[in-house]
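Consider this record:
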Amino acid sequence: MYFWLTAFLVLVLDQVSKYLVRLYLVPYRVYPVLPPVFYLTYVRNPGAAFGFLSHWPFLSVFIAFLVVPVAVFMYRRFFTADPLMAVALGLVMGGALGNLVDRLLTGVVTDFLDFRVWPVFNLADSAIVVGVGIIIWWFWRKEGKG
């Protein structure tokens, strides 16, 4: 249950936030929120997370189409009884779906979170990074006990 709920919440929050950004912000204009640390900057990103693979957008779509079934398989096969891994895999899947929806509907991903020391990103990117971080930590912790 945690897996599906997490993926759904990430997808909905991501798409609602991107809709509001497209509705209210001007592309490439910087909106100070907590200067000099945090800004909102609406960027249309043709690549993957944080602008990687921007010259190969088809590869980003292909990767998303791989991530989703792999996340479902991993959850069903190995982690149905582990709530932490269910949430982590749900974060990854919800983030992948959020960016995939953007790519399929508009051809680009809407990014807007700007901390000035990192490329502009969105909630889906954050969910993917946090989910992968939890997965890595989980396996690292498990290795130490084995």
Q: What stands out?
A: The helical segments are 2-24, 57-78, 83-106, 123-145. The chain is about 65% helix and 15% strand. The CA atoms of residues 68 and 93 lie 5 Å apart.
